[in-house]
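I'll show an entry:

:::
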Amino acid sequence: GVSTFDESPEKWALTCALNRCMTAVVVESWPHLWLANYGERDMPLYRQVDRVLAFDDLSKSRLIEAGFAPSQVAVTGNPENDDLARMRADRDRIKRSFRAERGIGDVVWVFTYCVTNNLEKGEVDLTPSDPRWSGFSESETIMEFLDALCRGKAADHPVAGIIRIKPGRERAPIEKIVHVCHAEGVHIIGEEMRDGRPILCASDLVVGTTTIMLQTASHLGVIPVSYMPRLNREDPQITNLIGVTHPLYVPGDRILSLYGLR
């Protein structure tokens, strides 16, 4: 699989394999955001592979635009999507089971925020001086999500919140933000549940910035919101442009209004 981390095991293995055997990389989703943020850094390595496996024609076109030879790129689909279709058919059962384990009622609206980055290391909490700065940090978007959730509870709406941390990421920064926002009732789920799909099945609305979990939520029949308040450049999310995810560019409790709540 394509990795954006300089010292990842995937990149190390690929570097060792080049010129020794046939090599291929799998691009599991649309490559537009990866190429926009890391293409200049990553392309010298990935252009050397024998095959790039894309999951649809739109991905193939973008990869060719980025410099891959047409003969390198093959459209193979993504078997993960077949698994998601099966989970979607069984979503009601998964939803009931997950909520029962955590004491969340059936009539409660569950809003989930999926964290993309390791806030402890500041991978996306960039400053305005960074060329990738988009006008907001993920710390801010999490706070605004929690603020919207608290407003909903204060208005006596039956809402519950989940923050899903990507496995391997730090938990402490999220706990600190929850404490600062006085949102201690929010469920924080991370390393203890590496497969995040049951969380999505149990949710009514899934919010994130650039996480692939939004696309996964869409496949599972859950409303996915790409939350990028104060975005100061062209929307980098191809999924927003083709209607897979729903963009929200303004801050505040508009998150609630997407589900008919104010």
